[in-house]
Amino acid sequence: MIGTETILELRNVSTHYGAIQMLRNVDVEIRRGEVVCLLGGNASGKTTMLKTILGYVAPTQGDVVLDGHRITGLPTQRVVDLGVSMVPENRRLFKRMTVRENLELGCYLRHDSGEIAKDFERVFTLFPKVKQRLSQRAGTLSGGEQQMVAMARALMARPKLLLMDEPSMGLAPVLVEQNFEIIREVNQQGTTVFVVEQNARMALSIADRGYVLQTGKIVLADTAKRLVSNPRMQEAYLGKL
Question: What's the rounded Cα separation, in Å, for the pair 150 and 162?
Answer without folding.
Answer: 12
